[in-house]
Design a protein that fits this description.
The protein is mainly α and 474 residues long. Helices cover 61% and strands 4% of the residues. The protein has 19 helices and four strands. The strands form two sheets. It has a two-stranded antiparallel ribbon. It is elongated and about 100 Å long.
Length: 474
């Protein structure tokens, strides 16, 4: 551990002040406890800034080399756990600048020429979000691949589709799974848009009005690998819509994830028994030995509220702030950092659940039959084959279902004599063909439907979409 000198005695901004900073001001003003996560981005942006200062003659070539080696040493100290963070230095920017001055003397004090912490943090956070998206995107692609793989193996499985949580119509399990593929695919696209919103160089904006030096912003833009530079210095340091876009994209993913988790929780219950999760993704009870709880789904469901609250946090934070920078904006990073953490682990959890779940086909079939899932198909059979008006066909099938309920039967095991009492049209082989679960699914032969041929078509399209995503260069 390097020695700490008079580190806390004088603020880097303290020339204007005579009195000592209050303890409560120190405690409420520090952000190093959380913004130390920005060290990589701060050092990266600081190095680009130093190169630019050398380019415009503020730093000599030797001074730049000293700063470059100092920043490399600080990076090493932080990553090896030998860097001391203390609240008196407030934030990651002050820590790095102070340590650079300790290492390199007065040349370290030159690094802050032509910049403010306002444009520093605005740049650092943009770079942080971009880096996070780069690391999260492969996890999302893996999730999409897992869904498609599971769908491929589930094309032959017929399961109930629900409206109002009541059995509605038969679906192929692949169709159900792919409904989440497309939802998560759109989430990927939203996250990519959030990346683009961060892809801007804001250094040179200073505190709010620009800087008094011939800052070469285009040079720094190229050094940082960014595609554009901010057009207005006030806007650059005071707005956080790029954070909001990421938080919204993350929240939208978590909404979809939460809905899936809710269904996994319901479908894995004894009452439904549609799916089972592997032991590795469940827990037991401290008192009830028979329990197998879907805790991972419940925890991801709860994390969705946390991520949505983080979005709400920043929206409320921003809504009443005057231009330009206000210290309130220090609080934007806590919800941002938390969201990246919760998003990452939730994607991993969803991926493992989908990969490990197994459909219980007998229970699925029983639910379809018990829920009279092919009643609509039977009515359509009367219309298309028996040429009965739809309203009359609907009435006849409704009466048949009522008799089934009374006799505790389903459309498959109700006797022919009972069916013929309602209508002669409910006899013969055509009746059973009309209520077939597989036939019901395959009659939905429209693009985007649940017919087997459409499932093969949809899986192929999903695979092409994944290939396209893999070509995206962040």
């Amino acid at each position: 551990m390097y020695p700490v000198k008079s580190r806390a005695k004088k603020k880097l901004w303290g020339g204007r002040f005579d009195g000592k900073t209050s303890s409560v001001m120190e405690r409420i003003g520090e952000s190093i406890s959380f913004d130390k996560r920005l060290y990589k981005q701060d050092i990266r942006a600081g190095l680009a800034h130093a190169k630019m200062l050398s380019r415009i003659g503020v730093l000599s070539a030797e001074e730049f080399r000293q700063i470059e080696s100092g920043l490399a040493a600080i990076t090493k100290e932080i990553e090896e756990g030998n860097f001391r963070f203390i609240p008196e230095l407030e934030d990651i920017h002050m820590h790095i600048e102070y340590r650079l001055t300790e290492l390199k003397g007065d040349v370290g004090k030159k690094l802050h020429t032509a910049r403010s912490r306002n444009d520093q943090v605005a740049q650092d956070v943009r770079l942080f979000i971009m880096d996070e998206i780069k690391s999260i995107s492969p996890l999302l692609i893996t999730l999409l691949e897992i869904i498609v793989s599971k769908a491929k193996n589930s094309v032959e499985i017929i399961m109930p589709g629900f409206t109002h949580l009541q059995v509605a119509q038969p679906l192929r399990a692949s169709h159900y799974l792919l409904s989440y593929f497309w939802a998560f695919f759109r989430d990927f696209e939203r996250i990519r848009i959030a990346y683009d919103s961060c892809d801007s160089m804001v250094l040179g904006s200073g505190a709010l009005a620009g800087v008094n030096y011939k800052t070469d912003r285009l040079f720094m833009q190229k050094e940082l690998g960014l595609s554009s530079s901010s057009e207005n210095s006030i806007d650059a340091v005071s707005n956080r819509d790029y954070i909001l876009e990421f938080l919204f994209a993350a929240s939208q993913f978590m909404i979809h994830a939460s809905r899936l988790c809710e269904e996994i929780i319901i479908f894995s219950s004894v009452e439904f028994g549609f799916i089972s999760l592997p032991d590795s993704l469940t827990t037991g009870s401290s008192i009830m030995p028979q329990k197998k709880n879907p805790d991972i789904a419940e925890l991801i469901r709860s994390k969705s509220s946390r991520v949505i609250a983080n979005l709400n946090h920043v929206m409320i934070l921003l809504k009443g702030l005057p231009m330009a920078y206000n210290r309130d904006l220090q609080e934007d990073k806590i919800p941002l950092f938390d969201t990246t953490d919760q998003l990452r682990i939730s994607i991993e959890g969803i991926s493992e659940m989908i990969s490990g779940l197994e459909f219980q086909t007998k229970n699925l079939e029983n639910s379809l039959k018990k829920g009279y899932a092919t009643a609509t198909d039977l009515a359509d059979y009367l219309v298309s084959v028996k040429k009965i008006p739809f309203r009359e066909a609907h009435e006849l099938v409704g009466r048949l279902v009522s008799v089934c309920v009374t006799k505790e039967k389903n459309l498959f095991d109700i006797g022919e004599s009972d069916r013929k009492k309602i209508s002669e049209h409910f006899s013969g082989d055509g009746y059973f063909s009309a209520i077939s679960l597989e036939n019901s699914a395959d009659k939905k032969d429209v693009f985007g439907g649940t017919a087997k041929k459409r499932q093969i078509e949809q899986i192929s399209l999903a695979e092409r979409k994944i290939k396209d995503l893999k070509k995206i260069k962040f």
